[in-house]
């Protein structure tokens, strides 16, 4: 089985993600978007970066790549798909997941460590954690503010589709702990099925023990069959 | 076929925060301007050929729906005139 890490023009977390997945024992490969998904694809990562220079809106151009039709088909057939940062923006732009990630409330690019609380531990991406557990993850984005109509957000919350919320170190969800103005502090959501998910923080940057804490490993373990 | 220019204006929906507009507004105020509110929008001018204005508008509408706007956060309008 292969986890395909899809490279678009301007992806820049693709190699880190492959390295992190391989560290966890996955057979992970870079896949150039024009080459399409390999036959043996058993998982897909849409990695972080600045695909197509964030032209129009972050993720809008990559969402139009033909490989995204293949990703949607694979997702519908049960293949796990994870969008990280720019990959999360691509996921929302291509309707794999609801809502949109748009300009930070600060109107600035923010690169910092944040805390997130596990909201639903009953998904492939969070089953390594306990509900309510607090993780320390890095963010690096200018367009990470989660926006969605209030009634749709209510429906998402009712269906337990919020994966993570920004919180303080104790796990309390507060405005001060919200780095980008996301509605209800949402940091990550699932698609209609929990095996499709997106998040703005970077789990692959906190997976290798050589570079520090490893709070992100559990997210990538979601590709474990 | 007639040549048209379709002007597609994409705006954030009312109520969606616009940090870039707020920053621009503050900069104008620092320059000494008095102003009420400031909103930003993206404008796309699309030259195309169609049988009639309705045909041109329909195609520009679809462009807005599928790419130029994100319906989750944007409203848009389309104006068509002969080029």
What do these coordinates show?
The complex is a heterodimer of chains A (225) and B (83). With 225 residues, chain A is an alpha/beta fold. Chain A has a single domain (2-223), classed as Class I glutamine amidotransferase (GATase) domain (Rossmann fold, 3-Layer(aba) Sandwich). Chain A has helices spanning 14-23, 67-76, 86-93, 150-158, 217-220, and strands at residues 2-7, 28-32, 41-46, 81-84, 100-102, 110-118, 134-141, 145-147, 162-167, 186-190, 196-199. In chain A, the strands form two sheets. Chain A has a nine-stranded mixed beta sheet. The termini of chain A are close together. Chain B is α+β, with helices and mostly antiparallel strands and 83 residues long. Chain B has one domain (2-82): Mth169, Chain: A. Chain B is built from two helices and three strands; from the N terminus they run βαβαβ. Chain B has helices at residues 19-30, 53-68; strands at residues 2-12, 41-50, 74-82. Chain B has a three-stranded antiparallel beta sheet with strand order 2-1-3, covered by helices on one side. At the A-B interface, loops of A face helix 1 of B.
